[in-house]
Each structure stands twice: as structure tokens, then as C-alpha cells.
Amino acid sequence: MPETQQKHPEIIISVENLEHSYKDFKAVDGISFSVKKGEIFSFLGPNGAGKSTAINILITLLAKQKGSATVAGFDVTRDPQKVRESIGIVFQDITLDRDMTVWEILEFHGRLYNMPVEERRKRIEELLVLVELAGKRNERTKHLSGGMKRRLEIARGLMTRPRVLFLDEPTIGLDPQTRLKMWDYIKGVNNEGTTIFLTTHYMDEADQLSDRISIIDHGRIVISGRPWELKNTLGRDLIYLETNNNDAAVRVLKGLPSIRDVKVKSKGFVLMVNEDGSKALPMIIDTLRNAGIEISTINLKKPSMDDVFVFYTGREFRDESPAKASFLRAGGR
Amino acid sequence: MKARQRLRSCGPGDGSMQYGFVTIYWRDMIRFVRFKTLLVSSLLQPALWLAFFGIAMSSSFDKLIAGIPATPGVHMIGYLTFMGAGIIAMTTLFTSLFGGIVILFDKNWGLMREILASPMNRNHIIFGIGLSGVTKSFIQAIIIMVFGILIGAAFFSGFSAMQTIIGVVGILAFVGMFALGFLFLSAAIAVSMESPEGLQGVITLLTMPIFFASNALYPIDAFPEILKILSIYNPMTLLITGIRYFAIGPDFIALGKHYQYTQSDILTAYLGLAVFAALTFGLAWWRFQKAVVT
Questions:
Q1: Is B34 on the interface with A (CB under 8 A)?
Q2: E-strand spans in chain B?
Q3: Which CATH class is domain A11-230?
Q4: Do B118 and A91 touch (CB under 8 A)?
Q5: Shortest Cα distance from B244 to chain A (angstroms)?
Q6: A108:B110 CB<8 A
């Protein structure tokens, strides 16, 4: 259906108090959020946080138990067919028939969605160019590299010109260069006007790609916001300190106006400072020295998405991504 | 086919949505042609059955029944011709029961999610798989008929050209309806199961009684009463009755037993197969509505 360009942000996914349990286990425990038309929205959380359950409800593969969810203006329970027609999906695992060719995969998808033949064929050619697989059209998918398979799946997700593209862990198992390339494709698709709903457990992916992020853990949304907003909630900078008397140091520093919060670790502690860390540092050093506390280690950095995650979920994130180790994660809790 | 018109469709201008099953059929046929080993073995297997089991059994049986005096005016047929009909039926049974396994693979490899998340009505998956299974069974049935005639089975012997055509069409009509019934059953089982091993187990369990409690290899008249009743209502027996009627004729003697079929016998057998297919379709429909694949 033709979309007129609208300037005001329109809500395209709206979820209220969504709950889903498997027997006694609450996989999704009352989440609410909305996604605006044209944005890239991410669910960031560890495996088992409830991301896939939530996405499966939104794409109508799983029946909703409690709460409400609409996608592209249609209720997922009352109008699943309409929702299905409006969305494209890239599933978490590769879902390509190994013995079909690249062209056949797209042709099959177009037929499944009942696209008229001329439109289908035209769209396949466009997409093969877009994902740089035009030279592979007669190749069976089992002969494609992991990155190519992913690109083909993105092309398939875009076949029907969906209003929302769902990407469930789009770069899982891809090498770093391929991931970067993948991000470019995703941004490109978004620039053409497709709203993107993404789940990921890669901090850097959520940070790099998203307009807005919801951090999800144990089936709940712990915090939502733009990446920089989330990082700003931890203060402008993080300062890690080890001293000869950490308890006393924390007591002394906690009252200072420029210190937003203190997180105690096993060997030291992390200060979240409201001002530029390099400016606050001399003052902090002076304060500790005046209290007779000796500093053995100092480290200063900007908060990362990793830090945000660990701060808000209070737990470590077993992350396979090449992201740098978190300040807040170092040591115990 | 017209019945499909009333199935739920979606969105404006989607009249062609009624043909979603063609898409499923197209894909399954691609797979059939592309898996060379599967293709060759599925075509070769029935011929081998006929060649080894058929020739071995018929040479023994024909010697045993050689002493039975012929009834004048009644067509007497050899064992190879008799059991050839059984081999067509057996091949159709195996192919159809395993026809649903593709659904299980699609489910386990995540391919089914693409289909279930699409706007296509789920019944089309069942119809599509049914249609491709029927196609495979037709190909196999024709191979067995041709190969059977080559090695000496007296199919269509004494038939005029027209009668032969009617015979072939009749056989395919029976094979098709029977195949649908077991394909739907297979699809229903496959969509409910988690592992191919489990499916294999269930299918093996089913094939044994269905095949042996039928008139595929021997007459059922001498069976004990309960087994006889089971055999009479066995879809396999209904199919074989139809095949023999169209391949041999309404009146013949085999293994010393005089077989006589009226047109209403044949019609009843066909209706029985249709009822069976309708029941298994209902079962498959129910299982697909329940199916959650994530």
C-alpha cells in the first residue's frame, strides 16, 4: 500500500503490559513500549531475557497471553493476517532451504505473500543488486558464506516492501567485518524508510544502530532511551579507583556534588561523575589525599553500553561480542 | 477444488491466494528433483520389489497352484499379476506416509517459520504437500505398471486401447485418493512430532499392519474373523481392489480364488477411500491450527 511521507512521528508498534509464560516460567513479564515509524528500535538483553518470545508474539508466531500488541495498526490477535502482510522477518537462525537457489528463495517468498508475478520478478532483481548477490542468483544457498546467507535473508525480509522489518539477532555468528557490512545494509534499509525492530545481545550493535534501545532482562524492560541518554544516566564519565581503604574512600566521596553514584567492586570502586572526568579528577585526588587515603590505581573512561547494561541489570553479561570489557563488570558485584 | 473458495482469505485483490498450495507444491517438487539419490531410489525401489519379491514369489506360487483346474470362461491370472497390484499399493503407502516428513524437517530447520509467519492459509501447506505426494505416487505407479508388463505381469491383457486408458485413469484415481489420505495422516503426525526418529517409529508401526492386513499378497478370505474385518475396511484393501478391477478386470481367478467385482463394489471402495482422506484431512487441519513453531 502506498505510504505518504509523514513528518510527525507515527507509532507503528505499540505494546502494553505484554506477558507470556511457559508453564511456571514468565518469559515476558509485563512489558510496554512503542516504536515510531522510521526508527531503528532495539531490544538489548542476554540470551533468555525474553527477546525472542516478545518478537514471536509480534510476528504472530506465538499467541499472546496477556496485554495488547499492535503492529502497523493491526492487533496481533484479532488481525494476524494483516500484521503478516505488513511485516518482514529475518529469523535468528538461518532459515534457508539449502537446496534452493538464491533466486528461488526470493521467488518462493514472493509467491507465499501472493505478489503478482511482474512485481515479484522486478523486486527480486532490485534486491539482488541491493544485497550484492546478483552474481549468485543460481547458486544453491548451501554454497553461500554466512554473510551472504544473512544478506539473502534480509533481501527476503524486504521482498514485500514491509512497513516494519523484524531482525532477530541479525549478526549472530558473523565475523567482525561482515558485521560492519551488515550494519551498513540495515542502516541503508532504514534510510529508505523501513522501520526496524531489532533484537540483539551485542552491546555495540545496539549502540551503533539504534535510535532507541530498551534493555530487557528477566522478561522486563529495565530502561529505555536513546543510546546517549542511557549512557548519560551513568554520568558523563566513569572513574575507576583502587585505594588502601576503599570503604573510607567511598564514604568521603559519596557526599561530593559532582559524584552521581558509586559502585563498589571487589578491589576498588567506580565513580560516576556528572562533569568532565578529567576536570573532576584533581579534586577527587585532593579529597582522598586530605582524608589520608592512598590511591593505587586510577582509570578514566566514557560510559559504554556495556556499563549501562551492567548498571541497570546488576549482573554480568556473558557477551561473545568483541566489545571491550565493562568497567562496571570488572571484579565482583 | 471449488471447496477451497470458502477458505479464509486475506486482504483485497487476493483471489490468487487460493493457489498458495501451488507454491508449496512447486517447492516440494524442486526438492524431489534435486535430491538425486532420493529421486533415483524412490523410482528404483518399487521396480526392485517387483523384480525380486515378485518373480521369486510368483515362480513358487504358480507351481503350487498349477494343479488347480481352470474354471472354463474365467480369466486365470499368475501371481505376478496378482501381487503387482499389491506392489503399486505398497509403494503408494510408503511414499505417502513418508511424504509428510518434509514438514518435520522444515519445522526442525526453521524453514516452517517463514511459511507460518506468511499470510498464506495453513491449509495450503497440507494441500501442497498432498499434491506433490500424489504426483510422486503417480510417477511410481506408472513405473511399476510399465516395468510389471515388461517382466510378464498381465496388466490390461485383453483390453482394448480405450479400456486400457480407462484402466490407467482408474488406477491413478484410486492411487491419488489413497495417497491423499495417508499424506494428510503423515502431515498430521509430522507437524505434531519433534524428531524424525519418532516419526520414523510411528510410520513403521503403522505400515506393518496396514500392509499385511490387506489383500496385497494373498486373499483375505482365509483370515480369522477379526483380522478379516480389519482387512475389509483397510484402505489398503480398498485401493488394491480398485487397482485389480482396473488392471485385470471384474472377473478373474488368482491363487485358486475367484474374484468378482461389480461396479458398485468399486464405487463403494472409492467412497471409502474418500471418507478416509476426509477424516485424515480433518486431523491434519486440526493439528496445523494447533501448531506453534517458533
A1: yes
A2: 75-76, 251-254, 257-260
A3: alpha beta
A4: no
A5: 39
A6: no
